Each structure stands twice: as C-alpha cells, then as structure tokens.
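WARN retry 2 of 3 for item q-0093 after timeout on previous attempt; input resubmitted unchanged.
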Amino acid sequence: MTSWMLPAQGVFDGTITGIGKSRIMLMSIYGEKLAAIDSTSCDSLGHFRISLNGRMPGMYRVKWSKEGFVDLVWNNQNVQFSTTGSSPEDSLKIISSVENQINLAFTKLDRLNQSKLQLLMPVVDYYPPNEAFYTLITNEFEGIQRSQQRYLDSLAGLYPNAYAVRIAKVYQTPFLPVTLKKDVRINFLKQHYFDQVDFKDTALLHSMVFANKAISYLSLYSNNRLTQKQLEGEFIKAVTIMLSAASVNTEIFKFWLDYLVGGFDKYHLDEVITYIADNFQDPYACEDQQRKTALQKKLETFKKISIGKISPDMEVPDNKGKPVKLSAINSEYTLVVFWSTQCPHCTAMMPRLKELYDQQKPRRFEVMAVSIDTSRTAWTAFIKEQKLSWINVSDLKGFGGKPADDFNIYATPTIFLLDREKKILSKPISLRELEAALRENKLIQ
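OK item q-0093 returned
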C-alpha cells in the first residue's frame, strides 16, 4: 500500500506491467507536436511516479517505447493509473482521476456509438419506410445521438470546468435528424460541424482535439473518385469554412492556419496552399521583413511559386564548383528537380528521368537537378554512378540552404517544369505526373 501513496504535489503515478525497468518519458502535446519535458525510470514491477507540478492543464503523453504510450489529462489533479506494455490503450485503467475517468469513458462511448451509427445509416437510407422495422431503426438512430448528448450535458453540469469535458464537447458531432436524406446529410455536417465548438478555449490547443477535428472535417470533403484538381477545389471550400469559424480566436486561427499549410504541403496540394496564402494571413505577421513569422514567409513564398508565376531565380555551385544560374539556362523548357541521395523515391526516379532526358532528339528541355544533400561524397558518387549528364548543383546545406528556402522545399522529390521565360507550367508530384506534364507539352511521345 505504501508504494501507492501519492505525495501532495501533482503526479502521474502509474504501473505498466510487462516492460521491466524501462525509461519513462513525459511528453507535452500541442496539436500533433510532441516535446519531451521530463523522464524517470520505473521499478521492476513497472511502477513509476513523475511530477507535473507547475505544468499547465492539457493532455500529456506517458511513453516507454515507440508504440508504447498512453495519453492522459492533467488538470491540477493527481493521476493514478495502470496498464500493460503490450496493449496500453485497451488495458488502461484509471484508479484515481475524475478527469481521466471522464475522458476514457467518453472516448469509449463515442467510439461505440459512431460505429453503431455507421452500421445503421445504410438501413435508414435504403430500408422501406412503411415497415415497422424502419421505425424501430430510425428511433434507434436518433436515440443513440440524443442519449450521448444527454450524457455529455450531465457531465458538463457536474464538472463545468473539467478539461476532459471541454475536449468531449469539441469531439461531439452535430445531431443528424433521421429525416435528412443521404445526399444532404454530408452538406448538413459541413455547415454545422463547428456549431458547438468553443474557439475561445485556447487551453485545448494543449491536446490533439483541434488537429483531430480538422482531419475529421476535411474527410467530409475527401473522395477517392475525385481528380487532384477537383479534390483541391473541395478542400478550398473546407478551409474557407474552417478558418472563418476559427477567426474569433487568434491563437486557434494561427494553429489551424499552420496545421493546414503543413498538411497540404506534405501532400503537394499546392492550389489549396496558394488559395490560403492569397486569402488568409498569419495574425502574428509583421510588415517588418526581418520580423515576419516563419509561417507568413512560407505563405508569401507559396504565392511566388504558384503555377503561372515566374520562378524565383537561384545561383548554385555545380559538382565542379562552378556557379550555375537558373535564369541563365538557355533552353526551351527547364525541369528543376529538388532531390537527395537519402530519398528512396528520388533515387528510384532518376534512372527513368535519365532515359527521358537522353531520348530527346533534339533536346528541348534541360534538367537542373538541385541536390538537398549535405555530403559531397554521396552526391557526387551517385552522379558518377548513374552517369547523370544534366546540370547537377548543390549548396550542400540540405533543407537549410537558400534554394530550398526560396522554393519552400520541405520534402523530396519536388519538381517544377518551366518554360523559356522560367514561368512555372506545372509542379508534378510523381514520375507518372512528370511524364504526363512532359507529354502535355509535347516533350516526349
């Protein structure tokens, strides 16, 4: 019993069976960003204590391996829990902490109810309305939603300031009347998804709730039957509603702005980012160029590298040390390829790109391959091995170099097809799209 007595200050007091004397990391959560803030070791039974004294309320991660972790609420209340190393989420038991009992219970209830609603939805849509079973199913469909809302309302009444209750309110989806037909249900959700979200509660940024809410909302607009251009058009509609809803609070607006730009950049949805850059500004941006935020600089750069704009110029040393200027390349078309020997997609693409380049008769497009490597040896060895005879350049500064900064390079490969005036014609994101862009401009058969 003595080992379970909690000291007066705030702690996570846990037992994780099956992990031995592992190192326990305490991590803060901000959206999807994790930061290690403390650590300790557990004893042979997997028991440990770690202090949260002075920490701000929020969600924190207790982690002991890559896949081994639990996320817990901290709101100035001691937390006592147990779980297993092999199945931490499913076996999590909250021994002491009302906040975490609320969080765990609501998460399980919401997951179960959403599964039930997904199963019932096709029946509601297609079962003959004049049959008794239809009435039974529709009553169940609405009853599940009302029951969960009553449960959440009761929690809010009992614990109005509970962090876990405030998170649950954000996760709660709008009530879907059974009278809504399938074709209008999604539009209803799109218009009412944020009706009950308190965008003034900035403390919730110290959890994943706003990141998860953004993902679930964007999923309403996603459809694998859409082309990329159509998908970008749908996401533009989504971000307009999202950022307009969040505009009542500067911090949450900034969080979503940064989060959306980073996500769309990762998937090369450049038209969406260009739209965001044209229509929304980092609220913390400053007109003083030296003091502009990193996000605002990124948004401004995206405007400069959108399709139809003249590409930024760059001067970079080639593999023999001679400076090469992009604007000085005298070719009908120029293919600028940002790549790295450390990128498997890049090294796999290069042989096929070399085939396309060498097959030109006459040569109509030049390749300026900008390496994001930091090792001259690795870079030059690959050039020699693959016999890459096009223009090979690198400042050997990786993603921290000026070319990478000027072109917003955060992943490789990133490709730009330019015309003679160095206007950006396309930004293909795969070998297939690259070949399609070259074919469209009659550069290959």
